[in-house]
Amino acid sequence: MTRTLRVASYNLHKGRGMVGPHAPERNLQVIADLDADIVALQEVDFRFGGRPEALPRGMIREATGMVPAPHVATSGQSLGWHGQTILMRPELAAGANVRRLPLPGIEPRGALALRLAAPDARGLTVIVMHLGLARSSRRAQLARLIAKAVRISGQDFVMTGDFNEWHDDRGLESLAGLQVVAPGPSWPAPWPMLRYDRLALSAGLTLHASGVHDSPLARRASDHLPIWADIALSAP
Asked: Which residues form the Endonuclease/exonuclease/phosphatase domain (predicted)?
């Protein structure tokens, strides 16, 4: 018996679209339209000061039917850690735990690892990342994440987010042995040309389908389009 989950990744650009204004209700509708089980989010907080939330947590469940991962925020005002969090369907939240993964590089960066315990996803770890602007930093960050993923995930894991890498043949060397999925151009949202957003699947997972969620609203709501993948998990 296999179980299939839809995992998505979405860089919200702080709810500002390409040029503003701040309108998180647009992002929340895009998230709802994805109809995903798990959504890895980047840039959910504003960048400066106390890093206040750009995606208001009080709006999430009503607008999307999803709940955020256990709270491990940058500050008391933040939704995420280094701007990242993971949303999931409420039935997946029972027993889920999250770890912060500090990353090397010339900018402050970090990833989150969510380990699920619900029967429909037991043992799956989802890691959300937003890698650095310099390729040397991205290489070091991916190497760190692979080492951490192998230690903390047990068996099945998905790494996803904004890789900030436009090439398929360089900068991703640490992902050898994983199935790397770049469903299509996702940036810039109004005229997508570059495949910044990806997923990397461990060997125990099977990809059924993947895509870029492209809609008129998604093209206005952020500078990135969301990506998604339908992933089959083997029964324990």
From this structure: 8-224
